[in-house]
Each structure stands twice: as C-alpha cells, then as structure tokens.
Amino acid sequence: MVYVSEELFQQQIRSKVEPGDIVMAKIGAKCGTCAILPENHSVGIIAGNCLKISTNPEVCNNYFLLNVLHYLYTKTGLVDIKTETAQPAISLKNLKTLKFLLPPLNEQHRIAAVLQACDEEIELLEQKLVALKRQKQGLMQKLLTGQVRVKAEG
Fold first, then answer.
1. Domain count, the chain
2. Looking at 20-136, which runs of residues are DSSP E strands?
3. Other C-beta atoms within 10 Å of 69: how many?
4. Measuring CA to CA, which residue among 70, 93, 65, 71 is closest to residue 81?
5. pLDDT tens string 107-141
6. Alpha carbon distance 55, 69 (integer Å)
7. Domain containing 84 — which CATH number?
8. Based on the domain organization, do 71 and 5 belong to the same domain?
9. Are residues 83 and 115 in the same domain?
10. Is residue 154 in some structural domain?
11. How far, in Å, are 44, 76, 92, 115, 118 from residue 125 at the CA level?
C-alpha cells in the first residue's frame, strides 16, 4: 500500500474504494479477476489498472455478484466484454454491458451464504494441507537422514 495526503485523496475521490466494494483487474492476462475489499480494510484509492464495483445493498448482494463474476471469468474469461489489443483489458463501459440473471435479494443472500460456507471450508482445508505438507517435510528430514527409524512389522 502507498499512503497519500488528504489533498491527493480528495483529488482522486472518484477512485475511492471502501470495504465491501468489489475490485477487478482491468488490464493484463488476469483482467476480470476480482475480490471484495475486506470489511476490516481502510478506505483507499484504487490503482488505474483496477475497476471498482459498488453494489446497492437493497438490490444486490456484493458476495453474490462476486461469485457471478468469478463464474463468468472461469467459464468464458469474460470474452464478451474484454478487448484484445496489445494487452487484454476490460473497460468500465464494457463492464456495464454485462448481463446476468439477478434473483430476488433474499435468494441472493441464501446463495451467497452457501457459497461463503464453501469458501470457508476450502480455506480450512487449504490450511490443513499446508500444515500436512510441513509435517511431511519434517518427517522426510528425520526419516531420510536416519534421525528416526521405522520399525519393521512383525
């Protein structure tokens, strides 16, 4: 992160991003990838190579929208809105043309809750995998250097 003065912040206020906003890469091989700015993050200004998407919480659940964008990126790479020049890019103008089904808000909340629970379980499993890999590395060191011997069966 780079910190800016209040004066510069006010000059760049159109680029203001707040917790809960979706931030999308708009230039490069990974354009279209996105994430939600965490609730515990401070207000900031996004870089010029990013797009900000703010949802109206009375119409759209931001976590639901994030998952729609992830799905479309995974399925199509967002080719319908991406321009292919020297570097692939997604403009705000093209992003605004993106169409998808938006179920009623209560259904969006339920869908988002299910997907968030899946993401939390994936995170736990990834943490367990990292711990297991560390454990294996330690065992390899002890077993392959003879510090620990494996007893023969029988």
1. 2
2. 22-25, 34-36, 44-45, 50-53, 82-84, 88-90
3. 21
4. 93
5. 999 999 999 999 999 999 999 999 999 999 999 99
6. 13
7. 3.90.220
8. yes
9. no
10. no
11. 32, 27, 36, 15, 11
